[in-house]
Amino acid sequence: MNKIQSYDGRHLRDGDTLYRVIGRVHGKPAVILDLNGAQTEITLEEYHRQIGLGNVSEGQEPIFRDRVFDDQEASEAAFRKRILELVDRYQELGLTWAEIKNEMELELQKDQRFASRASKLPAVRTIQKYRSDFCAKGNLALVDKRSQSGNYTIRYDDILRDVVLDLLEESYLASDRMTMTDLAWQSRINYLKRFSEERPKQEPGNHGRKAVESILDDFIPHSDVLKKRLGRKVARKVLLQAGNFQKIEHAYDRLEVDSTQADIFVIYDGKLIRPWVTLVVDAATGSIVGLVVSLENPTGLTTATALFEAMTGNDEEFFDRFGIKNRVHFAGYPLTVVADQGSENSGEIIDRLLSTTAIELQKNIPGHPEKKPFVERAMSTLKTFVTKLEGATQTRELSFKDRYDRAISEACWTFDEFIQKVQVWRYDVYGALPRRRVQSPLKRKESPIESWRRLCTEAYVPEPPNKQTLAQMFYCQSAKRIVHNYGIEVGYVQYSSPELRMLKQNTKGKLEVDIRINPADIREIIMSHPKSGETFYVPCKDPEMPAISVAERDRIIAMNRRDSDDYLSAQEVLAALVAGKHHKPSKATSNGGKARHAAQRKRRDDEITQRSNRSRNPAAPDIASRPTMPVFAPERRNRILQRG
C-alpha cells in the first residue's frame, strides 16, 4: 500500500468529474486521487500540468479560479494575505488583538503597497473571517466579492409589470401622485390575487419593493410620475433621464431602433430557422414606423432599410399584399434616432444615411434598455404575440430550454407567413392597442394610430425627404475613376450613360470624376459632375446584370475569373450565381448551423432574383426615371427644444 507523504485535500476536475486529492505518494513522483472511495494514481508531472491549467482548486472547497483578477482585486487580495501573515506572526509572540493591530499599522506603513491603508485596518471579526475563508478556499477567498453582489436577473414577471403599470395609470389619472410604499403594498395584493387566478400551479415571482422600482425605471418616461419618494440623491438621476423624454412634442421628434431574434422557429426551404426582427418606433405616437424581418443577423443595411421605410412609408400594394385593415401611411423626417451600440447601427451605410439626411444619432450605453423605453415596450408586446404562435421557443410557462423540442415539432409557419402575421399584428393589433397615459410622452391614453392621426390634424408632422435624397443614402462607398471612351469601370464592371458620354465629348484630355457606389447593388453608380457638382445615375452597360452586392461581386471575381483583364459580364455573374460562388463560405459545424446557413443562402438568392426583376434602386423600387439632381451639404437641424 502506498504511503501518503502529506494530506492535500484539494480538488481536481476532469470535465464534469471531480476528484479529491489525497496527497503525494512517499518516495514516488505520483499523486493519489479519490473518487467516491475508489483511489487512482496520476504522475506528479500530470498533476502539476493540471494546476497550471487551473483544474486544481486553491482551497479545500471545489472552487476554481477561471478568470484573471484585475489590478484592484489583486491588490485587495495581497493586502488581506499580508494581514493574515502579520497576525500569525504576532499571535505566536503572544500579543493581544489591540497590540497586534498597533504593530500591524506600524509594519504596513513601511510597505509602499499598503501604506495608504495602514490606518484603516479591518475589524477583528473581519480578520477572523479572512482566516476561516482562507483555510477553506485558499487564495481565492481573499478576493473582494462585493462587486459581484446584486441581482442580475430580471426582477419581475409580466403579471407584476402589468399590475404596477395599471395602478400607476389609475393613480396618475386621479391625483398624479402615489408614494412608493403605497404602490408596493397595493401591487403585492393585486399581483398575488391575479397570479393565483392565471397560474394556480406555479410559485409567485418577485413582487417586493425593488421589483416595483425596477418596473418604474424601465417603463416610465415621465418625471412627475417618477417622483417616488426615493430621496433627492436617487431621484435626481431618474428625473434627468425622464426630462429628455418629456421634450418629445411632435411625431418623428425621436425614433428608437432595436433588433432581436424572434422566439419562434419558421420554415424556409424545408429548414427550421429563427428569424430576426428590426423595429423602428416613433416615441411620440408609439407607432411602429419601420419593420424588417430577415433570416440573417441584422447589419447596417437592415437598419438603413428599416429607417428608409420609416421615412417613406408603405404604399397600397403593401397593404393589399398582407391583407391589412388599418391602412395608415407613416412617413416623416426624423430629428433624432436612438439606437444601441450594436454593429448593425454603425458602418458605411449608417454613416452615409446620417451625412445625407442630417439625422442626429444617439447611441445608448450598453446594458441600459430603459434609455429607449418606447421600442423596448413594442418589442415586449411583439414577443408576447409571438409566444402564442405555433413553433414558439418559449412561453410564459416554459423557458427556451424546456420548450425547445416542442417548438421544433410544432413549427408549421413558413418565413413568408410569419412576415405576414407580424405585419398584420403591427397595424391591426398593436396599432389599435391604447398606450397607458404614464407611458406616453404626450400623456394621452390613445392607440398609436389614433395618436398619429390626431397629430397629423392638430400638430406639426415633418415632411419626409425626397426620394432622390433617400436613394443616395445607400451609395456610401466613394471612389475616383477615369472616364474612358467606353465609360467607367468599377470592379471589372463597366458603366455608361448619355450624360457620361456627353461629358466625355465636351472635355479635352484626361477626365477624372468622383463616384459613389451602393454596396448592396452593383447595377448602378452615382457620378458627380467635376465642374457643376451635379450628380446623375450611371447604369451598368450590361442590362442583364443581376442585383448582387459589392462583396458578392468581389467573391465572384476572386473565384471565377477566366481572364483577370476581362470585364465582368452578366453571363459570367449568372453562371457564378448558379454555382453558388457568390456566397460567403460557411463556418458552421453543427447540423443546425449548416441548415440555417443553407436557408440564409437560399433566401439571399431569392432576394437577388426579386430585386433584379424590379427597378434598379433597391430601396426605392417605384422610381421610374433618373433625373439629374444637385447634391448639397446637409444642413444642421434644429434641436428638439427649437423645433416647431
UniProtKB/TrEMBL annotation:
Residues 246-442 form the Integrase catalytic domain. InterPro entries: Integrase_cat-core, RNaseH-like_sf, RNaseH_sf, Transposase-like_Mu_C. One of its GO terms (molecular function) is nucleic acid binding. SUPFAM superfamilies: Ribonuclease H-like. GO terms for biological process: DNA integration. Residues 581-644 are annotated as: Disordered. Gene3D superfamilies: Ribonuclease H-like superfamily/Ribonuclease H. It holds the Pfam family Mu-transpos_C. This is Transposase. It comes from Roseovarius spongiae.
